[in-house]
């Protein structure tokens, strides 16, 4: 397996020219057509020698505006679960190209952002942005056939409560499709930060902030997950919880962190 990753890394490295922006030909699954994916060094990684590696997962942007991980999420959703146009779908983001794309194809989709106590949960602000917390979703039980959540659970201090809420809001047979920062080589979850009993945040590891469309400082990541996540998701009641790892030069799914999780409510 490690040698396969070396091969992939070699392919990826051969694609990097000494330019700030470059294009990698491939096929965009959501567009259903060949395209040139745009890559730059936004959120890139820099090694000890100063060599930059693009953040493949967040870049490889098609003309449709979708990056690598967004295109892959749509690919897995549509190829594996064949959603119908009017299926009730909830996605835990709203001010993103992914939400816009989903809304164009699946009119019943509901998106939201976490606005805190600025406005009541379940209501929308003047821009039409709906406020929801994964800790207590405002939706009735069994509301959705699909819940999609990409890179959000790591920001929920009590992520298990987040999974319980998704379980509650899914219909029987419903699917939760999600991604989180994941360490392929760890069994255990890593706690990066936690709340002290006094209410202040304790940083167990150097704080990691992820891009947030609503907050220029980014959003604190409380966890990097390991394989025990699958057992935790099953213990909440989901069946068939599993990880899907993928990589494709053709579809432009580069980078090692191409993992999506699927869990089904029986
Ligand atoms: Zn596209």
Explain what this protein looks like in three dimensions:
- The chain has 266 residues and is an alpha+beta fold.
- The chain is 21% helix and 28% strand.
- The protein has 5 helices and 16 strands.
- It has helices spanning 2-14, 68-81, 97-105, 159-169, 228-235, and strands at residues 21-28, 33-40, 45-46, 52-53, 89-91, 110-111, 144-150, 170-179, 190-191, 193-195, 201-203, 209-212, 215-220, 223-224, 239-245, 259-264.
- It is globular and about 50 Å long.
- It starts with a helix and ends with a strand.
- 32% of the residues are buried.
- It binds zinc ion.
- Zinc ion is lined by residues 28, 30-31, 35, 62-64, 66.
- Residues 28, 30-31, 35, 62-64, 66 line the site of zinc ion.
Keywords:
alpha+beta, 28% strand, 266 residues, binds zinc ion, 16 strands, two-stranded antiparallel sheet, 21% helix, 6-stranded mixed beta sheet
Topology:
Blueprint: H1 2-14, E1 21-28, E2 33-40, E3 45-46, E4 52-53, H2 68-81, E5 89-91, H3 97-105, E6 110-111, E7 144-150, H4 159-169, E8 170-179, E9 190-191, E10 193-195, E11 201-203, E12 209-212, E13 215-220, E14 223-224, H5 228-235, E15 239-245, E16 259-264
Bound molecules: zinc ion (ZN).
Query: How many beta-strand elements?
Result: 16
Q: Any idea what the shape is?
A: globular
Helical percentage = 10-25%
Number of helices: 5
Average per-residue pLDDT, rounded, comes to 92
Largest sheet: 6 strands, mixed
| Strand percentage | 25-35%
Backbone CA Rg: 19 Å
Structural class: alpha+beta
**Low-confidence segments, ≥5 residues, pLDDT <50?**
none
Separation, N- and C-terminal Cα atoms: 33 Å
Spatial strand order of the main sheet:
6-5-7-8-16-15
Bound molecules: zinc ion
SSE run: HEEEEHEHEEHEEEEEEEHEE
